[in-house]
Specification:
- By secondary structure, the protein is α/β, with parallel strands linked by helices.
- The protein has one domain: 2-enoyl-CoA Hydratase, Chain A, domain 1 (Alpha-Beta Complex), CATH 3.90.226.
- The chain has twelve helices and ten strands.
- The protein has a six-stranded mixed sheet with strand order 1-2-3-5-7-10, sandwiched between helices. A two-stranded parallel ribbon has the order 4-6. It has a two-stranded antiparallel ribbon with strand order 8-9.
- Strand 2, helix 1 and strand 3 form a beta-alpha-beta unit.
- It is globular, with a radius of gyration of 18 Å.
- About 45% of the residues are buried.
- The mean pLDDT is about 95.
Length: about 270
């Protein structure tokens, strides 16, 4: 399999069929623009088709896993039906392509994770986070509903009470708290993050491959049962891109101030 067509993902083959994938836009904390968003959706099909890969590990270059959607991309998408239609398709593909990839995916969450990056981090079959990493679903900060991966996986991972709290407040969660409430598989010190992720991946790569893959397949039926909820959340999120709240939310993030959402203004 030739992974050379990817502009913002780096690929490093390790022993025992482990493929290390690095999100590579460190100059903007690995924020997702149109090209990277598409790559994060497509790569799992290529991983599935690659005969040399048994396990994929994904992490971020530099200090972040992925800091969320590039603000310029979000502004281009706002009130733009063709762009919203594309974003909906890709957001759906990110989730379903990880679920449907028969090979296990391990995420090494090395720093801030938001938006599509967080979707990849938490949809991974095994998620390992550094103690000092922080993440937020972040959609409510922008003024759009919590779509992407949130509705399909958060209630299953941490329960409805915690899911509603963190998705509706968009509060940040650090690595220790994420592990405590069950949002991630493991939390380790920063210097141990990638070695731990590769160690776990190597264990999977040396294991009985059909049994590993079929165990993933069986367990993922729990996730697929929530597909109608996911489809609704994604559609409602995209509808919000035609509202004035997202214009104000984007401006507030860019200007580093608290938003004054029109829908909350008397």
């Amino acid at each position: 399999m030739n992974f050379g067509a990817y502009d913002h993902l780096l690929f490093d083959r390790k022993p025992d069929g482990v493929l290390l994938i690095t999100i590579n836009r460190p100059e903007v904390l690995n924020a997702t623009h149109e090209r990277l968003h598409r790559e994060l959706a497509d790569v799992w099909r290529d991983v599935a088709a690659d005969d040399e890969t048994r396990v994929a590990v994904i992490t971020g270059a530099g200090k972040a896993f992925s800091s969320g959607g590039d603000l310029a991309m979000i502004e281009r998408q706002t009130k733009n039906f063709p762009a919203v239609r594309t974003a909906l398709k890709e957001a759906s593909d990110i989730v379903y392509n990880i679920v449907n990839c028969e090979k296990p995916v391990v995420s090494a969450i090395n720093g801030v994770a938001v938006g599509a990056g967080l979707a990849v981090a938490l949809m991974a079959d095994i998620s390992i986070i550094s103690e000092d990493a922080r993440f937020t679903d972040g959609h409510l900060r922008l003024g759009v509903g919590a779509g992407d991966h949130a509705a399909i996986i958060w209630p299953l991972l941490c329960g409805m009470a915690k899911a509603k709290y963190y998705l509706m407040t968009a509060d940040f969660i650090d690595g220790r708290e994420a592990e405590r409430i069950g949002l991630v598989s493991r939390c380790v010190p920063a210097e141990q993050l990638l070695p731990t992720a590769l160690e776990v991946a190597t264990k999977l790569g040396r294991g009985p491959q059909t049994a590993v893959r079929w165990t993933k397949r069986a367990l993922n039926h729990w996730i697929l049962q929530a597909a109608p909820t996911f489809e609704a959340s994604l559609a409602l999120e995209m509808l919000n891109f035609f509202d004035d709240d997202v214009v104000e939310g984007t401006a507030a993030i860019r200007e580093r101030r608290d938003p004054s959402f029109p829908s909350a203004t008397p």
